[in-house]
Every structure is written in C-alpha cells, then in structure tokens.
Amino acid sequence: MSFRTTSIRGAVNILAIIAVVSLAGARPMFAICGDGIVDFGEQCDDGGTTVGGGCDPTCKLDQSGIACQRAIIREARKLTSTDATLHQTCLDHVANGKLACQATLCVLNPASGTPTTVTGSSCAVATDCCPAYDNKVPTSTTAAKITKAEDASAKAIKKACSLDKGPDTIKGTDDDTYIDPQTFGYASSCPSVAGCDTIATTGLASPGAANDYIDCNACLASGLTGNILRVHYPLAANSPEEVKCQRQVGLQARKETSNYTTLLLKCLDKVSNNALGCIAGQCTLNPLAHTPITVPSSSCSTAFDCCPNFDNVDAAKTTLTRIATAHAAVVTAVLKGCSTANGPDGLKGTSDDTYIDPQDLGYANTCTDLGGNCGTIATTDLSIAGADNDVTDCIQCTQDLIGVVLSHDVIR
C-alpha cells in the first residue's frame, strides 16, 4: 500500500488547536512584533514589546513560554492517547458481548445468568453505553476515567503555564496569572470539530463552565478519538471469527492513533524546543547553534512544515518513516487477526489467505468521512497492496485527523 508523504499542513480541511508549536527559524518578508498577531518569523506575540508573559520583546518565546508550550504538546499527546485507549476498551466490551443495550437500557454481561442493568442509563444501540454507562459504579465508568485524565492534564498545563502563584501562593490554581493562549497564536474559540465550537479559548484556564483552552483541549481529544474509533467498531460481527477480527481491527485502530500521536508530537516538540527550524526555506536541525545542519532535499515555509517529513538528515529515521513503520505493523496485525485460512504458502496473514469480508463486520463500501478525503477510500477489502483502497488505509486516513488536531492553527 502507499503511504501519504505530503506535509500534514492542509491534509484535512479541519481547524483544530490542541498543540501549537513554535515557528523557529521562519524568515518572513514582513512581521510586526507587538501587534498581537503571530506572523511568520515570530514564535509568539503578546501585543507588547516588554519582558514577561511567555514572550520576549523580539517575539520569541522566553523560558516560561517554552516551558508552557512544551507542556501543552506533552499533555496533548498523553490525553489523546489515554482517551483513545479508554474509548477503545469500552467499545471492545460491546464487541465481545460484555456490554449491550436491552430494552433501551445498558446491560453488563447480558449473556450471563446474572446480567446487571446500569442504573440511569439510556440507549438505542450498545455503543450508546460508551462512555457513560459501561459500569454500574458511576465513578468507574469510561466517562469518569476520561474526566480524571482531563483533570490531570489540566493540572500539568496550569503548573507549566502559570506566571505567578496568586494570593493563595499555590502554583497552578485559579487565582494565578496564566500565559495568554493568543500569545501563541490561538484563535478565540475552539474549532468546529466534535461539537467543541461553543468553547471560548481566550483564556488558558478559567474556573467554572467549559470556556478556556484546557476545556477545548479535552473536548477535542475525547470527541475525535471517540468518533474515530467508532468508525472502526461497526459491530455487525456475528461468528466467533468475525468477532475476533472486529476486536483486532478496533485494537489496531487505537494503536494507530496512539502511535501517530506520540511520534508526531515528538517532532513538534523538537520545533518548540528549538531543535528543529526552518531557515531560508530549508528544514534545519539545531537552528540556533553555531553549526546548524540542513536536512537534504527539504523545503519549508515554517518549522512546522518539517514535521513529519524532514526532522532528520537520515530519511530512514524521520518521523514520517517511523509512522510508516508503525502503520505496517498495524496492517500485519489486522491481517493475522482476520485471516480465516492460510493460503498455499502456509503463512498466516499473507496475500494468499482467506479473509473476513469487511462488510460482514459492518463496514460500508467506503470509509466514513469524518471531515476530509477519507470517503474516497473503498473498504470492501481489508488490505490491498498499492493505492489507498482498503480498511487499513481507512484506519490510516482517519488518524490524519489527529495530526490536524495536534498542529493546525500554528500556520500563519
């Protein structure tokens, strides 16, 4: 199969703002430091030219700004991966028959002699029980676990982005002064993805209702991972072999999400930490060093453009190659999990095997389009060598949404 090698920039027409990376080394023709707009060549712009607030007088991140931005990137990675795991675990309970919808109520272990109805639940189909009604104890549901992960992420970001301790002298609490998200170039509201567009992002952390960057972060991480994983749990499997295949497809979709998120954000962190930049239209390692290293055959307008294609002088070690390697492992696992009979070569998971038909799992004839070009990919086969035209390509394409969520609004 082919692997998309173009820059993530513009790959999917969705605006999202979980992680904003610095534009180290970009060289614009015109940029006005202090106008409150992050132009090409600026890492930040807080609307002034004085010291403090995470942005220095030359519109470069100061140490507090770098620490804040790296924390945002780190927590975006952790929260997205955690949410993906939690959503997948809940959906897998539906796939393996441990969670069902009966008479509009969510039921645990429905096939056992002692099924348990989840109090207060409501459902039309079993997937409606995820994430809020998959446990009889409210504090042990997937939704409660996601909230706990969100709280931990918020705490870490607040501590890293606090400029003072406030009257209570405790760092990271509501009375602190925080770095303004607009300093990094954020929009004033969360993007129209996964129902998150009602959240304002003019503040980093605001007490009360969902109305700040941290709330936007949480909404996007949970909403998108949930939507992506539901695509790959169509849940029409009936036979034991089909159920085994469905569970493997869902598991590998989750792994693809986690792998992609981790690898991409490591690259973005290089940009934020000034280990990767864009100088004179070429991607450059250690751009602030006396002897920066230009990545051969690279091109860029901003440092962001160097992820994932050009973050290493050795093409075999770029983030793009690592993502491709991780995806190849996903394909192999799906084929092995969905093979019903070895072919003449006697090897499981090769092209001459007999495989489960994706339509028997519940896939439509084409990939579900969550907001991009995934709807053009056929899903009538599990994996076909060559062009994007199978279920594993659909898995890969839906993960591209994560890349946009993690990196879009940096582009100016």
Model description:
This protein is mainly α. The protein has a domain of 49 residues. It has 7 helices and 8 strands. A hairpin with a 7-residue loop joins strand 2 and strand 3. Helix 1 packs antiparallel against helix 2, helix 1 runs parallel beside helix 3 and helix 2 runs antiparallel to helix 3. The protein is flat, with a radius of gyration of 23 Å. The two termini are 33 Å apart.
N→C terminal distance: 33 Å
Strand content: 5-15%
Shape: flat
Number of strands: 8
Characterize the largest beta sheet: strand count, sense, and whether it forms a barrel: 3 strands, antiparallel
Estimated structural class:
mainly alpha
> Averaging pLDDT over every residue, what do you get?
85
Radius of gyration: 23 Å
Return residue spans where pLDDT drops below 50 for at least 5 consecutive residues. 1-29, 408-412
- The helix count comes to 7
Strand order across the largest sheet? 1-2-3
Please estimate the helix content: 25-40%
Order of helices and strands: HEEEHHHEEEHEEHH
Topology readout:
Blueprint: H1 63-95, E1 99-102, E2 105-108, E3 116-117, H2 142-161, H3 213-231, H4 240-272, E4 276-279, E5 282-285, E6 293-294, H5 319-338, E7 339-341, E8 354-355, H6 358-361, H7 391-407
